[in-house]
Amino acid sequence: MLKSEYILNGLTIPNRVVFQPMEGCDCNTDGSPSELTIAKYKKAAASGAGIVWFEANAVCPEGRTNVCQMMLTEANMDAFKSLLREMREISEKQTGVRQIFVLQLTHSGRQSIVPMIAYRNSVYEEKRPVTDENVVTDEYLDTLPALYARRALLAREAGFDAVDVKACHGYLLSEMLSAFTREGRYGGSFENRSRLYLDCTRAVKAALGDSMAIVARVGLSDMVAKPNGFGTAESGELDLTESDMLVQGLIDCGIEMLNVTIGNPYYNPHINRPFKRGAYAPPEAPETGLERFVTVQKHLKEKFPSLPIVGSGLSYYRKELMEVSEALLENGVCDFVGYGRMSLAYPELYTDYLKGNFDYKKCCVACSKCTELMRAKCVSGCAVFNGYYKKLYEEKVLCKK
Predict the structure, then answer these.
(1) Which one of 195, 222, 243, 304 is most buried, by most CB atoms within 10 A?
(2) How does DSSP assign 120-169, residue by residue?
(3) Residues 168-192 pLDDT 10s
């Protein structure tokens, strides 16, 4: 199954392997790819993965998490065009496949340099205090669909194959979904809370028509108790009632693929990146988190059988990675398998697998050091298998512990 093609909106996806969006905080200050960014994506190009899902790309300057977040603009367009051309050349010459490139569109919201929040959330504000002045107005939110549409058009001009209207991990479009306590047109009812996300998706679809695929990486549950989280009951347990309503709304807006994620890495990173060791002791066994991903993905495939699903939460499996990936595809749990941390640690895993040379000792060890680097406001990468990031981790993280 891993080797099988998939046709999406006229695009031939050469296999079922997806390199997930992994933000490196390493672009130039104008949002263009730096040498570190380019090096990472060249490795992705040589990986043989069917889809390379580019990291979070801010739709506006005030929506960036940091001054080095990726941001495609008219001014830096040529840099993106150059990178994509080089990646295609590497991919086709070295692996014989034409990869599909997805650009992820985002507004960082609460995690922006100056926080821009949907509502006051006592859970999240324990770690990053804000005031009422940080709550974005309805008038500001009204401007966002046009910004998403404009960035989507730039993505098409740059040479991307698809755009992702992202709503996950507590960023603005995601946080709006849990704005139960917000007043006005964007809070309270599900219709109001989902309004901004669906409006942005509709705007992108109207701008692009059928010229590009529109996909979505969505947090189906924050795993934060209602009313401070979406897709979660007041007890803190998974509740996909509104998640199903959201997915149906996205389908109606024209999305053609759903990339599944769960949790908020700024609050409960063990949910979307199960680990054994890291910055804190997780309150649940990694296997619990892995089973939760399978449960959610199975549910979606049963509810929306014609919607292609990208599975997540796989990097933890390490030695059993390829067997588990094949099993998930064969059993219809998902249509694609997404590798996040693994793509940083072992980018050549798929080509090695095809050659019979897969080496689990090169796999991600689920230590979360890549996340720790990001939280330390450093460029992020694998601090176990990459000497550059290993030294940076020792200098910027270990020295402060």
Answers:
(1) 222
(2) --TTGGGTS---GGGBPPHHHHHTHHHHHHHHHHHHHHHT-SEEEE-B-T
(3) 999 999 999 999 999 999 999 999 9
